[in-house]
Every structure is written in C-alpha cells, then in structure tokens.
Amino acid sequence: MVLKPKKPTINIDGTNLTLAKAKLIASGANIKISESVKGQIKASHKLVESVGKEPEPTYGVNTGFGYFANQKISKNRLQKLQMNLLKSHACGYGDPLSIAETRLAMVLRLNVLVKGFTGVRVELCEALVNLIKANIYPIIPEYGSVGASGDLAPLAHLALPLTGYGMVNYKGKVIPASTALKKAKLEPIKLDVKEGLGLINGTQVMLAVGGLALFEACQMLNIADRVAALTYEAMVGSIDALHPRIHRVRQQEGQMQSAEMIREELQGSYLFNEETEHLRVQDPYSLRCAPVVHGTSRDAINYAYGIVERELNAATDNPLVFVQEKRIVSGGNFHGQPLAFAFDVASMAISEITNISERRLELLLNPNMSHLPAFLTPQEGANSGYMAAQYMSGSIVNENKLLANPACTDSIPGNVGIEDHVSMGMTSARKFRKIVQNSWAVLAAEAVAAAQAIDLRKVHPLGKGTRKTYKSIRSKVPQLKNDRIIADDITKAVDVLKCL
Question: Under the phi-then-psi rule, with left for phi > 0, alpha for psi from -120 to 50, and beta for the rest, what region is 413?
C-alpha cells in the first residue's frame, strides 16, 4: 500500500506567511486559525459594534460607501447594507481564476481578517476556513478589478458563497453556492456590521494571481541560466566573459549571481581546455552579456519578491480598527500600487529573459554563427530541422513584449471622482501570469536546439551541471535525425525544464 504524503498545516495568524507558504496553500496545504489571534479579533469586532451604535457617522461602519460615504445608515439597515455591498459589487466578467489562485486568495483574505484590524467576528473567519476545508471554491471572474479600493469585484465574488449566494466549484462541478453548502452540511452566514466591507476591501486577488506567477518566475530565472550554459557549450562560447572579476567590478548583485551560476554549470566542461578552438574572438551579446541581462532580471524579480512578501501579511482593509486607541481610521491601504508596480517590473524582467533566449536560439540555428548545418538538421534541404521553433519563439517573444508594457501607468477613475486614481494591479498580475506561462516554451526551444547542436558538434566532456541538463532533455526528446512534429519536442522539453 502506497501512503500519500501528509499535507503540511499552516497556522494563519496575520504575520507569518511567505511566498513559499503561499505556494503550499495554493497546492492544498491544510490551514488553521491560530488561537493567539482570536482575542484581538473579538476586541476589534466589539469596538465596531460599539461605534455602529453611536449617532456620529463612521465610514464603513454606519455609512454608505464611496460616493455614498456621507449617507448615514440607520441601525436596522446595517446588516442589509453589508449584503447589498457584496451583491452589487459582484460584477466580474470572463474566465474564472484557477482553483489554486482562488484557494490562495481565500486564505490571503483570511490572513487579513485575523490580524484584528478589520473588525469582523471570529465566526466569519471560521466560516471562511470551513469553506476552504470543504473544497468549496467561489467562481471568481478574472476581469472586474481596477486595483483600488483593492479587488472589490473579485473579492465580492469570493465572499458571496459564505452567505449562500454566487456560484462555486465543488468537486469539479460549477453549482450554486447554496447547493454546495447543503452538500457540505454548512450553514450560510449572516453578515454583521462592517463584515461585507471587511471581506472585499483589499489586494488579495491580484496578490494571489501575481504571487503564484512570481514564485514560478523565481524558478524560471535559475532555469534560464542553466539553459544559457548549455548554449555556451553548444556554441563553443568563450568563458572569458564569465570571469568573476568582470562581474565583481560592476557590483550588480544579480549579474554576479547569474555569472556564477552559469560558470558553475560549466565546471569540468571542454570549454575550459586550453586546446579548445573557439569560433570567434568575441561572442555575440546574447551569449557574452547573458549574465548582465539575466542578472538584471534577477534584481527586478527580487524587488518584486520583497513587495509581495510584505503584502502577504499586510492590513489592506479600510477603515482600519485600532483597538488600543479605540479608533476606527479611514485611509488608503487598499490601493494596489505597490503590487501593480512590482508585477509590471517583474513582467519586463521575464519578457527580457525570453527576448535574449530567442536570440541565442537564432545563433544556434544560423549556420553562419554556429558553423553547423542550417536549423540543426543533418539532412539539409529535405528536412527543415528546428526552423519553425524560431517562428514559435518569435511569436511568443512578440506577445511578451506587448504584455510587458506597464498597466500601472494607466488610471481610469471611477465612483464619480472619489476613486480618482487606481492601480490597475489586477491587470498587471494577469499580464505577468501570461508572460510566465508563455516563457517556458521559449526556454524549451533554446534547450532543445542546444542539445541538438551539442550532438552535431560532438563536443565533450560537458560541464557537471550542463551534463545533467542535457541528459534530462535527451531523456524525453531524442536527437533530431529526420523531421518530426516539433511541437511535441517543445512540449516535452517544457515539462523537463519545470522539473529540473
């Protein structure tokens, strides 16, 4: 009998999430609310209840929202106000987020609520946990958020099933939330004062979408260095450009890291032999400057990583409840600009990784540069070899360049001028996700071509790292001797790279 590995359990306390833990949560890790936070949650809600009974208007507690903030709401209409907020703001459109993204967004919102600055009940937090444990995942359309006041529309879709409204994915089927709750033997919750607003004011959907893409992008940077190292061997590249002192004197951290990784991959390679005859005095920039370009992307991704890790444990609600001061204060922590900037920068970083990868692919396929048969086919003319792989790569790089244009520099005001500057952070996150998804195929095309060039050149020995990469590619993609369906080679190589 084969035992399934036990899923880890992650305590949710508003302070300890990391991107690595977020990935585990998205992949199905168990969660539980830390007992240590329940006292703060209760005290926060008690203050909200008290303020809600006061005659003075307090935004988000006993007033309308946005343009209607000056409208005082009577006590007997406060609960209806919260429910109306969810229904009216559930105005998304398009394909639903993935289960992984949805699950993570639910937990990220829970992580905000348990910080005790939102003013919701412990019961609401537990109801959200029960939804997650029952694998009831709200259908969250990908369009609808402008990134301030946070992800209002997507979070409204996320929150509705708690109350028995909206549609959900339950056991692989899209059904009404009310039906799923019954099947899971859960009761819909009735929202209390401020709880509707507390569920939808924040950045957790863009954070889930962009955060998971960022986790994958970090993996991709290492793979890009490994593939570039393989191309170094395939092109008899000059290792002088990898000399540590060259990169130390420039003092750019990412550049030094990428240069070191490529050099480590090549340790033991024939390229270090003094008798190796190089094809040229200086290599083209896509080889010679690979550490510079890759390293700059590393620095950009590290910047985005820092922003995301802070946001994972941030209080992004509005207004915020400060129990010790006995104050409820309105501000702008829901604004998605930090994430919008981070994901736009990350988009440019990964787009450039594919930009330079496609150029190395061209070097490999070009007989004037590689001194190998054109398109790496041993039977020129009757066979086209990897000619079309460059077309595929070029088409993706073109799209990546367009997607890398920033979304955060645009702002379409709403709410009759109250929300007069927005971040478009969800657009930034979705673009970034698409770029990352695209980019594996570009790196795969370079890797397959590099392996083919190594076979045709019959060079050995390979480096201690490049040898592993080469063998991994060859375990799924055999040497190309006659034309075959190249799309199959690329697809198999993508799977290989993701597992390196």
Answer: beta
Please write the tens of the pLDDT for every residue from 127-162: 999 999 999 999 999 999 999 988 999 999 999 999
Distance CA 174, CA 189 (A): 21
> Of all helices (H) and strands (E), which one includes residue 448?
helix 425-457
As assigned by CATH, the class of the 209-499 domain is: mainly alpha
What is the tens place of the pLDDT at every residue in 310-358?
A: 999 999 999 999 999 999 999 999 999 999 999 999 999 999 999 999 9
Which amino acid makes up residue 184? A
d(CA 177, CA 160): 8
Q: How far apart are CA 459 and CA 351, in angstroms?
A: 31
**Can you tell me the distance from the alpha carbon of 44 to that of 116, in angstroms, rounded to the nearest whole number?**
6
Helix (H, G, I), strand (E, B) or coil at 95: strand
DSSP assignment, residue 408? T
Instruction: Name the burial class of residue 412, with classes exposed (0-12), middle (13-18) and buried (19+) by CB atoms within 10 angstroms of its CB.
Output: exposed
- Please tell me the distance from the alpha carbon of residue 64 to that of residue 78, in angstroms, as a whole number: 10
Round to the nearest angstrom and report the end-to-end CA distance of the chain: 29
Q: CA 477 to CA 451: how far, in whole Å?
A: 9
CB atoms under 10 Å from CB of 330, counted, come to 11
Residues of the chain with CATH 1.20.200.10: 209-499
Task: Give the architecture (CATH level 2) of 9-202.
Answer: Orthogonal Bundle (1.10)
Q: Where do the CATH 1.10.275.10 domains begin and end in the chain? A: 9-202
Residues 6+ apart with CB under 8 A from 467: 461
The residue among 254, 258, 270 whose CA lies nearest residue 303 is 254
> Which one of the listed residues 59, 143, 270, 303 is annotated catalytic?
59
Sign of CA dihedral 25, 30, 31, 35: negative
pTM: 0.95
Q: Which residues of 148-171 are buried (b: 16+ CB within 10 A; e: fewer)?
A: bbbbbbbbbbbbbbbbbbbbbbbe
For the question of residue 270 being annotated catalytic, the response is no
The CA distance from 352 to 238, in Å, is 22
Count the Cβ atoms, other than its own, within 10 Å of residue 388. 15
**Residue 33 near residue 12 (C-beta atoms within 8 A):** yes
Q: How many CA atoms lie within 13 A of 197 on its CB side?
A: 27
Calculate ∠ Cα 18-440-374, nearest 5°: 155
